[in-house]
């Protein structure tokens, strides 16, 4: 999902839920295009797309030169039905997301705050003044300002996906009276201003405490909300899982499939000299056209991972350095190498918290396999994959498994960097960090293992960033 799609999706949700919940009734007008553009800080095109989606679904009438008019409101009782149906079907996933956010977001937001300069803090303070408990967009604007200094679109995408999936958790403001809403809004603004003041004072420990307290309080609120819901209504028979849509749309499908195939080549599911399944079989496996598969195979060829032999198929080959360097010039490859770097940054920022939370849930057979990998220096390239698999295949939080399963696949785009570093030996720091993880596994010391993984990811981030800058990718 690209940035524009995320924006008009949120704006659509914003007005759709208010129409269904009776906030806008039949005959009411929505804000003008100009007013909505100012309200959300987006382009006219984005607002028009959101309004047209509502028009196509029969909720709005749009006429040239006039504000959009609501022509189908929420019938009696639908307000509560919409809330109950949405929440009940996503209860487990939203509770899990809330728990996960409490674990991983504090470190990310702390890093974003610490990277903000005076001008950035001033801009954030202005946005905080506009925050309202019943207006999700004003809150998202503040969150995105904090994330912006990290320069990581992949991370921002993940945050947007969480917000869209959990979109109705903010609707309590619609059921409260104006005075209660204003009290809650003022409390929210005060908490953010305390964080800004701590950052201005360069008091990082207080800032960390305030951020952790904020996300902890958010989790308490979400659980209280669902506790009240559970006391009144029966749970849904089927739960909707959270899915992070990293790649969406036809142009992106080839990248998604390439990512999966690279991961399998890395893991030696497809060995040197072995032929991949036919284009028709791959198309059936991934649910895409044969043309999309052929484009994907061209991309793998540019990376020097495969070669296509007329009449026989596509096989895995030893990656040649000159081919890998040529592949580095392909726009699609350069784009996904940037995604790889964003992936490593996410792993570095979330790694310690995720490994601490997941460690007790690792499966014994996976732990034994990981220990063997850590002892084998020739397998050091796949150590990050092995660690992510421990999480993705564990009995831990489903949302953590989804996050690290996706990041594991995205990490595969770093395959080309193996040849940019050819000839260099394993650094002493990398060896020490992997030994730290091995020792942590052996001693069942979650903290030691988690610190080793986080340190390794920061080490990879520094080295990969340096190589990509040297070759003009960044």
TrEMBL record:
PANTHER family referenced in this protein's UniProt entry, alphabetically: GNTR-FAMILY TRANSCRIPTIONAL REGULATOR, MANNOSYL-D-GLYCERATE TRANSPORT/METABOLISM SYSTEM REPRESSOR MNGR-RELATED
GO terms classed as biological process: negative regulation of DNA-templated transcription
Name listed for the protein in its UniProt record: GntR family transcriptional regulator
MF annotations from Gene Ontology: DNA binding; DNA-binding transcription factor activity
Gene3D superfamilies linked to this entry: Winged helix-like DNA-binding domain superfamily/Winged helix DNA-binding domain (1.10.10.10)
Record InterPro entries: Bact_HTH_transcr_reg, Tscrpt_reg_HTH_GntR, WH-like_DNA-bd_sf, WH_DNA-bd_sf
Keyword DNA-binding: yes
Keyword line: DNA-binding, Transcription, Transcription regulation
Domain HTH gntR-type: 5-73, 251-319
SUPFAM superfamilies: Winged helix' DNA-binding domain
